[in-house]
Design brief:
Layout (H helix, E strand, L loop, with lengths): L1 H19 L19 E6 L2 E7 L15 E9 L8 H4 L1 E7 L22 E7 L36 E9 L12 E4 L11 E5 L2 E5 L5 H6 L35 E8 L30 E4 L7 E11 L2 E4 L6 E3 L11 E8 L2 E7 L6 E10 L6 E2 L9 E4 L7 E10 L14 E4 L2
Antiparallel strand pairs: 1-2, 2-5, 3-4, 3-6, 6-7, 8-9, 9-11, 10-12, 12-13, 12-14, 15-16, 16-19, 17-18, 17-20, 20-21
Length: 434
């Protein structure tokens, strides 16, 4: 009996040993938080700041797609940015952008309702006000923990940093949990150059020309480069020594003053409008690929479509470029009142039952074709031989009566609708039909 009890006890212990095993380390929980936004830039155009960022497409553990429902963009003005943990408290929320859900496993895209997709770049606009050009709220400092720095005798205290504007973007998942803060973008709040005045736009058959006066007028044109600071006319005696250096005065970056030209086109009636993305804007792009040192720009021509131009001055070199406010808008709606050139070098050649005409082709880009006119010599009656303009610079008149002498001329027309512009008649040519 005792032996049987021992056997059963041994079997139970073996079964328990197999079932229990050694306790392993705890498994990490699933992390469904979007990755930080590290691609962010801020471009200041006068009082407007265009903040461009790329939405994350993965989570912080590199899993895709990202569990992201919205992005919040914050701005802050100061000499240093807030700590990462206090951005949402000290910064100012300037935009909250919803993010569209990712496609299903079969590739079907759910309705986006105008929201941008993961992994796409977006741009938001922040218009600076007077309150955003001064120091924002700062972290309170406990005076008991604030210790004066120990500097060697004769050390020079570095000057404070200039006032700057900072931006950061924070992603959130569908449960409202935020991801880690990413990179910061910012720029120094330097003074702005004066916008140019007297912007004029004119056009010719081949293009549009935009001209403007220099920034600051005549004085700004003469003093285009920043002058070096002049020494004071007398020695300045510091009566009360200061242990803290004075705050730096913001100055305009060194010259010369360059210019960017922007164009707004009226909507094309033949193009379907594109629905804007919720809460985002389009970053303006200048017409000129590089800043201009001259006071003029040549643009293409498109008749019957209004276009408006603005010019912005800029100073400094990258990355410390300061761009001023835009000039007043100058709008123009080119109207095609220009007639084509007179067809040149017409010639007529008679053949059996017909007279052939040839001439030099016109070079206008809006050429609509040619019209052929015919008169009988000694008769002032004018006959139009072409019901619609012909495209080739040649024509065969098979309606000529043998033995009759004819006088031909060619007229060029453009493609303006509904009434085209017509050139002057070409020099006449005469030929007798056979």
């Amino acid at each position: 009996m005792i032996r049987n009890v021992r056997v059963w006890t041994a079997l139970c212990v073996a079964v328990l040993a197999i079932g229990c095993g050694k306790k392993g380390p705890p498994l990490a929980p699933f992390v469904r938080i979007p990755a930080p936004i590290d691609q962010i830039t801020a471009l200041r155009l006068g009082s407007d700041v265009y903040v461009t960022l790329t939405l994350p497409s993965k989570d912080i553990d590199a899993a895709i797609p990202a569990h992201i429902s919205r992005v919040e963009i914050y701005g802050y003005t100061g000499r240093t940015p807030p700590t990462r943990a206090r951005w949402a408290e000290l910064g100012e929320l300037i935009a909250r952008i919803p993010v569209a859900p990712p496609p299903l496993l079969d590739g079907t895209q759910l309705p986006t309702n105008g929201a941008p997709l993961q992994g796409t770049p977006i741009t938001v606009l922040d218009t600076l006000t007077a309150d955003e050009l001064v120091q924002g709220r700062e972290d309170p400092i406990d005076p008991r923990r604030q210790l004066a720095p120990l500097l060697p005798v004769g050390s020079v205290i570095p000057p404070p940093r200039p006032l700057q504007r900072f931006y950061i973007a924070i992603p959130f998942n569908d449960r409202g949990r935020n991801g880690p803060p990413g990179a910061e973008a910012g720029f120094v709040l330097a003074p702005l150059p004066d916008p140019p005045r007297a912007v004029l736009a004119s056009y010719t058959p081949s293009g549009t020309a935009v001209t403007w006066e220099p920034s600051g007028g005549l004085i700004g044109f003469i003093v285009n480069d920043s002058l070096p600071p002049e020494p004071p006319p007398f020695d300045v005696v510091e009566l009360v020594p200061s242990a803290v250096p004075a705050l730096p005065e913001p100055v305009l970056p060194p010259g010369p003053t360059l210019y960017n030209v922007y164009r707004d086109l009226a909507e094309d009636p033949l193009t379907l409008p594109v629905a804007p993305t919720t809460g985002t804007v389009v970053l303006p792009a200048p017409l000129n690929p590089a800043p201009l040192a001259v006071l003029t720009l040549a643009d293409q021509i498109e008749f019957e479509r209004e276009r408006c131009y603005t010019v912005r001055p800029l100073r400094g070199t990258a990355p410390n470029v300061v761009m001023g406010e835009a000039s007043p808008r100058e709008c123009v709606r080119p109207v095609d009142i220009f007639q084509p050139a007179q067809p040149a070098q017409p010639a007529a050649v008679a053949a059996e039952g017909a007279i052939s005409l040839i001439w030099d082709p016109n070079a206008e880009i809006d050429l609509g074709g040619y019209m052929i006119l015919r008169r009988e010599v000694g008769n002032d009656t004018l006959l139009l031989l072409t019901a619609t303009p012909i495209l080739e610079a040649r024509f065969r008149d098979a309606t000529a009566t043998p033995g009759t002498r004819y006088r031909y001329s060619v007229v060029a027309v453009d493609n303006r609708m509904p009434v085209p512009n017509m050139s002057a008649e070409s020099l006449p040519v005469e030929e007798t039909a056979r």
